Amino acid sequence: MTQNAFIRCLILILTLIAWNPSFLQSSATAQTATTGTPGTLTVMTYNLKFGSPNPPNGWPQRRPLMRELISTIAPDVFGTQEGLYGQLQDLAADLPAYQWIGMGREGGSRGEFMAVFYRTARLEPLAFDHFWLSDTPTVIGSKTWGPTLPRMVTWVKFRDRQTKREFIFVNTHFDHQVQAAREKSAQLIRQRVTAFDAKLPLLLVGDFNADAGSNKAYGILTDDKFFADTWTTARERVNEGIGTFNGFKAIQKDGGRIDWILSRGEVAADRIEIVTFSRDGQFPSDHFPVVAKLRLGTTPWP
Questions:
Q1: Rounded to an integer, what distance in angstroms lies between the CA atom of residue 69 and that of residue 66?
Q2: Sheet containing 202-207: which strands, arranged edge to edge?
Q3: Residue pLDDT, tens place only, 171-208
Q4: Mean pLDDT for the chain?
């Protein structure tokens, strides 16, 4: 490289940094996430807030921040809640390293999705399906138990290309109004996950609309150690005590933790964080993402 070419490259790099100060930080974080401890899986749950066009918190205003945040975190797999079809297509276009699996809760592309995004270089989907949180879980769009909106689960069986291990990833969104529906949803999930291969680790993520540790739905899932809460088992917790719902207003100190990453089987949590990113007072969503660094094994469930 000639001296003039070197100087031109240096000027270009300095211009990028000056235009976007997060350039170095985002690149470094993504590299760390991708090339971290071998076998560590970066897992995220994130309620995107459905893609309304209306400012000040419309999807056009939030989309660039969402792209920046997820690119910086660089999860290997993440479950989203509330995303609409067009919104998820936008996200897929913004995140070319990922593909996604999902169905609208009213069937096809209709309604909100419990979409599962995965990094194709790291994970290979082997099977997937959906069921609804109702007395008729195989009926698309079904709702019983009193809620006004259908609620559902999307699950995917993955093979980790790095470790050669398989695991189950389950993503859901519990009702926001009816406590009895949340409790019955938890009971149904307990019942249905027992049909999965007991040798495989299982991750259950989502927006549960229930405070961890105090709501009965949480107890149904975690009693007798059926599921473990990676927030409590993690060796390191970041932003402890902050609520995962911000309402586009402010960080809620001592707020409820309603977005969870639960595990079943041999799963070790090294680190977990409630990520409170915003820019110029704008949050990407009315929830904060929860991100965990996990190591998955193959010990059978108890």
A1: 5
A2: 123-132, 152-160, 166-173, 202-207, 259-264, 228-229
A3: 999 999 999 999 999 999 999 999 999 999 999 999 99
A4: 90
Q: Are 298 and 264 in contact (CB under 8 A)?
A: no
- For the domain spanning 39-296, the CATH number is 3.60.10.10
Strands 259-264 and 202-207: antiparallel
Instruction: Give the start-to-end residue ranges of the domains of the chain.
Output: 1-35, 39-296
SS (H, E, C) the chain: CCHHHHHHHHHHHHHHHHHCCHHHHHHHHHHHHHCCCCCEEEEEEEECCCCCCCCCCCHHHHHHHHHHHHHHHCCCEEEEECECHHHHHHHHHHCCCEEEECCECCCCCCCCECCEEEECCCEEEEEEEEEECCCCCCCCCCCCCCCCCCCEEEEEEEEECCCCCEEEEEEEECCCCCHHHHHHHHHHHHHHHCCCCCCCCEEEEEECCCCCCCCHHHHHHHHHHCCEEHHHHCCEEECCCECCECCCCCCCECCCCCEEEEEECCEEEEEEEECCCCECCECCCCECCEEEEEEECCCCCC
**What Rg, from alpha-carbon coordinates, does the chain have?**
20
pLDDT of 30 > 60? The answer is: no
